[in-house]
Design brief:
Blueprint (H helix, E strand, L loop, with lengths): L2 H7 L6 E4 L5 H12 L3 E6 L4 H13 L4 E5 L5 H15 L4 E4 L14 H29 L2 E6 L12 H21 L4 E8 L5 H10 L6 H6 L10 H12 L8 E4 L13
Parallel strand pairs: 1-2, 1-4, 2-3, 4-5, 5-6, 6-7
Helix pairs in contact: 2-9, 4-5, 5-6
């Protein structure tokens, strides 16, 4: 294989990616896809997720790339600020940052405590801010870099019982566009991907167990989707790959779903 052919098959060869919340779910799918395309990856997760994170690192290494696991609490400013330096110490550079980690709680204006509000905003918007701040210091020197923030359809309005989460994702969307505008001078691109209904371990647990829908809810949900299934983490990862391999896009928000988020119900009601 020629060098040219190899670069086409490995568009991210030589690059280093940091992906938060990547020990499982959407983040794991993103980490694996980036590695499959040549990137070395910092896999990040919460304390207590060493086993899951170790499996993702092992999968990446088995595929021929390199990875390292970093765990900690994204509510902790010092931990947030340590992740990019850890990547630099391990791999010597950071080219890609994917802010995927998020916490979701069901609550309304009537039952949301200050503590819950602060936790959601600490993880969902302050942590991305801190990670971006650290990453930009390095990317600015190299006049190159790409940041992808993972949003939610709830950032547009949100479910009635998802007030803190929806507000945090709306804030992340505005943060993305503002940051993209400022960082264009350094050729650092910033975009957001807004996944639709995605089948993850967490989604299985919340709907099947917490909401009591049982084991067959996936089949029922699939029948409501245009293509007969829910999105998978590997599908969402393709959206991230689109951003990181296209150098002329910044400040974009891509709705990644099988139909428009605001499509009216088929019943016409």
């Amino acid at each position: 294989m020629s060098d040219v052919d190899g670069s086409r098959q490995q568009p991210l060869a030589g690059q280093v990616a940091v992906v938060t919340g990547s020990t499982q779910g959407i983040g794991a799918g993103i980490a694996l896809a980036l590695a499959e395309n040549g990137a070395r990856v910092i896999v990040h997760g919460r304390d207590g997720q060493h086993a899951d994170g170790g499996k993702i690192v092992a999968s990446i290494e088995a595929a021929g790339s390199e990875a390292a696991l970093v765990t900690g609490d994204l509510q902790d400013e010092s931990h947030c600020r340590s992740i990019i330096p850890a990547a630099l110490a391990r791999f010597g550079r950071v080219d890609l940052l994917v802010n995927n980690a998020a916490v979701v709680y069901r609550s309304t204006i009537e039952d949301t405590s200050t503590e819950l509000w602060d936790e959601v905003f600490a993880v969902n918007i302050r942590a991305p801010f801190l990670l971006c701040q650290e990453a930009v210091r390095h990317m600015k020197e190299r006049q190159s870099g790409c940041i992808v923030n993972i949003g939610s359809r709830n950032g547009y309005r949100g479910g009635k019982k998802l007030l803190p989460y929806s507000a945090s994702k709306g804030a992340l969307m505005t943060f993305t566009k503002n940051l993209a505008s400022y960082l264009a001078q350094y050729r650092i691109r910033v975009n957001m991907l807004v996944p639709g209904w995605t089948l993850t371990e967490g989604e299985r647990h919340v709907i099947g167990v917490v909401e009591g829908k049982g084991e067959n809810w996936v089949e029922a949900a699939a029948k409501t989707r245009p293509y007969g299934r829910l999105l998978l983490p590997s599908d969402v990862a393709k959206g991230v790959l689109f951003y990181v391999t296209n150098e002329m896009i910044s400040g974009a928000v891509l709705d990644f779903e099988q139909s428009p988020f605001d499509a009216p119900p088929e019943s016409g009601i």
